């Protein structure tokens, strides 16, 4: 997992509440066995017309938002099923952070385990970001995990994050990375175990 520190780039505004994981990554695309390649299916049904063509009015299809690094949306983002494919798709598209007033708990945790930074801000601050990104697609936002701030121009907002989750993101440690920090202790334990016991090596 790549360490997360400071994210600077433009924003993609998605002013919708209760965005669920089936809209983020529809179920028909969950058959892939690899973690990459999901970005092309992100918000698939919203991004296309009933005929299947790309909808030019959908935010991710607009030229000014295609290279955005921060997705800004409404409350209860990531509700619905616990599918990990939803944050995989968001990250694979190119987003490095998602800003919303609130997140579904499982979605929030799934984000932190892959290095996609979920940021909770007051709804008023989020609405200001959505308005700014809508009127000025080139507006640049800076999300600083170390300082726990979101800055645009002279505006600055602070966000809370669990200290251990923050540490993991800053260090780039997923669950496997956390385990590998204890490789020496694991090897020492294995060396001292009776040979009649199954080995973990």
Sum up the structure in keywords.
globular, seven-stranded mixed sheet, alpha/beta, 201 residues
Order of helices and strands: EHEHEHEHEEEHHH
Determine the mean pLDDT: 94
Q: What is Rg?
A: 19 Å
The strands making up the biggest β-sheet line up spatially as 4-3-2-1-5-6-7
Strand content: 15-25%
The shape is globular
What's the helical proportion of residues? Answer: 25-40%
Write the layout of secondary structure elements.
Elements: E1 6-14, H1 21-24, E2 70-73, H2 85-93, E3 97-100, H3 105-112, E4 117-120, H4 123-135, E5 140-144, E6 149-152, E7 155-158, H5 163-171, H6 175-180, H7 183-192
Parallel strand pairs: 1-2, 2-3, 3-4
Antiparallel strand pairs: 1-5, 5-6, 6-7
Quick recap:
This protein has helices at residues 21-24, 85-93, 105-112, 123-135, 163-171, 175-180, 183-192; strands at 6-14, 70-73, 97-100, 117-120, 140-144, 149-152, 155-158. By secondary structure, it is α/β, with parallel strands linked by helices.
Plain-language structure description:
This protein is an alpha/beta fold. 29% of the residues lie in helices and 17% in strands. The chain has seven helices and seven strands. The protein has a seven-stranded mixed β-sheet. A hairpin with a 4-residue loop joins strand 5 and strand 6 (149-152). The protein is globular and about 65 Å long. The model has no long low-confidence stretch (mean pLDDT 94).
């Amino acid at each position: 997992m790549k360490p997360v520190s400071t994210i600077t780039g433009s924003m993609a505004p998605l002013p919708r509440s209760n965005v669920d994981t089936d809209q983020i990554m529809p179920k028909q695309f969950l058959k892939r066995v690899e973690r990459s390649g999901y970005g092309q299916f992100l918000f698939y049904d919203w991004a296309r017309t009933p005929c299947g063509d790309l909808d030019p009015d959908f935010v991710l299809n607009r030229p000014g938002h295609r290279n955005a690094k921060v997705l800004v949306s409404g409350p209860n983002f990531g509700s619905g099923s616990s599918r990990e494919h939803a944050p995989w798709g968001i990250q694979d598209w190119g987003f490095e952070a998602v800003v919303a007033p609130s997140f579904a708990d499982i979605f929030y945790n799934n984000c932190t385990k892959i290095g996609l930074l979920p940021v909770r801000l007051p709804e008023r601050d989020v609405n200001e970001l959505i308005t700014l990104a809508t009127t000025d697609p080139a507006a640049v936002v800076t999300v600083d995990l170390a300082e726990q701030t979101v800055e645009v121009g002279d505006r600055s907002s602070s966000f809370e994050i669990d200290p251990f989750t923050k540490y993991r993101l800053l260090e780039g440690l997923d669950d496997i990375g956390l385990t590998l920090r204890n490789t020496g202790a694991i090897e020492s334990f294995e060396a001292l175990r009776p040979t009649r016991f199954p080995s973990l090596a």
